C-alpha cells in the first residue's frame, strides 16, 4: 500500500515538473486578457445562430456561411480552425444561455452570432461583460447599436440596421405604390418591433397616416382578432408586418379572409425571405412585397462561395444572411490574424486588441459590399431592395 | 363569528384581493370597451366564430390529455407531437402532391378522407409506440418519472420529424370547395370554420358514446376507477390503456387535419403551443372529464379570441392582441384559485391524487 502511494507521488511530482518545463508563461499585457493556443491546438471560434425551431433555415444558412469562410481560410499560423456551433433559439432565453455557455470556455476567441435580434440583446451584454467579441450576421434591430439602449462594447454586426430598411419600405409604399394609409404589425420581438416602429415613424414623417400599430403573439396561429382590429381602424391600403415565417404565413392567409382587408396590399421583411416562407404564404402571398438586403451580389469571391455552398450543402442558399455571415467570419479571422502574436509555435491573441481591430475595420471588401464599422459596431454597407412575390419567386422591383 | 375571523389567514386575504383585482379589471375593461365601441358588430361576430373554431381544435386535442390523465394520472406532454406527426406526414405524402396534381380539388371528399386516415394512422402509431417504449416500463415508477419522460418523448418526436422532413414550413393546399364563406342563420362564416366546428362536435359526441355506452369504454372507465380491482375483474389493463392512448391520438390526428384546413401550413414545431393550450383547456374544464375538456377548449378559444379586444382594449393597453397568452393563462390561474378541480372536474380523493 505504502509502496503504491510512493510511486504515485513520484509520478505526480514528475508530471508537475514536466508541466512547468512546458514553456515560459506568456506575459499578456492586454486589458481584457489573452487567448493562447499552443502548438497543435486549434484556434476556436463559436457561432450562436438559430439552428433549431421554426426559424432554423435562417440560422443554418448563416452557419453554412461561417463554415465556408473557415474552410476558405484553412489555417491561422499553422493552427487548425475549429467552430463550436451553439443555438440562439431565436429568443432572449436562448441568447442568454448560448452566451453563458460560450464565455465559460476560455479557449474561444471570437463569436459569430446571433441570428435573431431578440437573442442578440442579452447575448451582447453577456459576451461584452466577459471581454469577448461577437459579430452578428443578421441582427438588424436598431436598438442593438444604439448606446442609449442595448449597445455593448463587444458587439458588431455585418447586417444592415433596420433604420435603413424601415425607411426604405416607407419610401417605397408612399412613392412607388402611392398609398397614403398603412398599418404595421409586429410580434414583440426586438427585430420585428424595431422595424415596424421605424417604418411607422418614417411613413408618418413622409406624410402618410398610420391607422393602427399593433402586435400579435409570437407562436400564435389565429391572427384574425388582430387583423380584425386593423380592419376596424381603417381599413388601411397597406399593411407591413416584418415578422418571421410561421406568424407571417398565418397573417398573409388570414388577412385575405378578414372583411375589409381583401384588397389591402401586404408587405413583409427579410425574416420572411426564404423558400420556407414562400410555402408558408402559399397562393395568398402572390403579389405581396418584401423588403430585405439586396442580394444581387457579384464578383469572383461570391461565385466561389456559391459553388462551395452548393457543393457542401446540396442546394442554393436557403435564406438571406449567408453572405453576411461569411463576411462576419472573414472580418473576425482577418483581425485575429492581424493582432495575434506569434511565440514559437504558439500564438497569443489579446481580447481588447481584437475588439479594437474589429471596430477599426474600414473599406473591408466583402461579398455584401465595402464594410466600414461605425463607433457602435454598425459595419454593413446597407443595400435595401424591395421584391414582389410573382409566380412563387421573389422578383426585385425596387430600386 | 369570532372563530371565523380567526380562521382567515394571510393567504386567504391575498387570494381574495387577487380575485377582486382580476375580476374588477375584466369588468372595468369590458365596460370601457363597450362605451368606447371601437369595433363594428360584425367584427365581434367574426372574432367569436374564430374563437369557437380555435376552441374546437383545443377541445379535440385536450381529449387526449384528459383520457390519459383519467386512466394513468399522468400528463402526457408528448400529445402535442402526436397531433403534429399525423398531419405533417399526411401533408407531405398526400396533400402536397395531390394539391399540385389537382386531384384534391377534383375529388375533395375522397382526398380528405384518405388524408384523414393517414393522419390518424400515423398519430395512433406514434402514440402506441411511445406508450409501449417510454411509458409502460415506468408504470410503477413515481409519478414525476413518466412526466419527465413525456417531455423527453415530446422533444424526441419533434426533432425526429425535423430530421425526417426538414425544418421549413410546409404549405397545405387550399381546397376550392372550402374557400369563401357561407351564411348560417344570416351570419357569414368561413367554410373552414364551419367544417371544424361541425366535425369537432360530431367527434366529441361520438367519443362520449364510445366511452359511456360501449363495452370497451366501460373497461376504460373501470381501469380509470381502480387498476388493480379492474384487473381482478378480468379486464386486460394494458389493453384498456393502449385503447385509451389510441383514442386520444386518433382525436389528435383528426384535429391535425382540421388545423391544416383552417391554417393551411404545417411544421414540425406546430404541436408545441396547441399542446400546451390544450393541456390548459383540459385543466380548465377539469382534467379527467371528457365534457370538461370540450368545455375548457371552447372557453379557452373564445377567451383568447375575444378577450384582448374586450378586456384589454378598454384598459388602454396598446397592442392587446400580443397578450393573448396572458388572457389564457390568467383564466387558468383564476380557475385554479376559484375552483381547483376545474369547471366540471370532480374533487379527486387524496388516494387518487
Into which percentage range does the β-strand content of chain B fall?
under 5%
Distance between the termini of chain B: 34 Å
Shape of chain A: elongated
Helix content of chain B: over 70%
Count of individual domains of chain B: 1
Give me the count of strands of chain A: 18
Tally the beta strands of chain B.
4
The biggest beta sheet of chain A reads: 7 strands, mixed
CATH class of chain B: Mainly Alpha
Query: Which structural class do you get from the secondary structure elements of chain B?
Result: mainly alpha
Oligomer: heterodimer
- Indicate the CATH topology of chain B: ABC transporter involved in vitamin B12 uptake, BtuC
Q: What is the N-to-C order of secondary-structure elements of chain B (H for helix, E for strand)?
A: HHHHHHHEEEHHHHEHHH
Provide the CATH superfamily of the largest domain in chain A.
Answer: Response regulator
Low-confidence stretches of chain B: 349-353
Rg from alpha-carbon coordinates of chain A: 24 Å
Number of domains in the coordinates of chain A? 2
Q: Outline of chain B, from the CA principal axes?
A: globular
Strand order of the largest sheet of chain B: 1-4
Characterise this structure.
The complex is a heterodimer of chains A (399) and B (353). Chain A is an alpha/beta fold and 399 residues long. Chain A has twelve helices and 18 strands. Chain A has helices spanning 2-21, 56-73, 92-103, 117-129, 162-176, 190-205, 224-233, 245-255, 275-281, 300-313, 322-339, 351-359, and strands at residues 34-37, 43-49, 75-76, 79-87, 108-113, 134-136, 155-157, 181-186, 209-215, 238-240, 265-268, 289-293, 341-343, 346-350, 364-366, 369-371, 384-390, 393-398. A seven-stranded mixed beta sheet of chain A has the order 9-8-10-11-12-17-18, sandwiched between helices. In chain A, helix 2 runs parallel beside helix 11 (322-339), helix 3 packs parallel to helix 4 (117-129) and helix 5 packs across helix 6 (190-205). Chain A starts with a helix and ends with a strand. Chain B has 353 residues and is mainly alpha-helical. Chain B has one domain (48-296): ABC transporter involved in vitamin B12 uptake, BtuC (Orthogonal Bundle), CATH 1.10.3470. Chain B is built from 14 helices and four strands. In chain B, 49% of the residues are buried. The interface between A and B is large, with 43 and 45 residues.
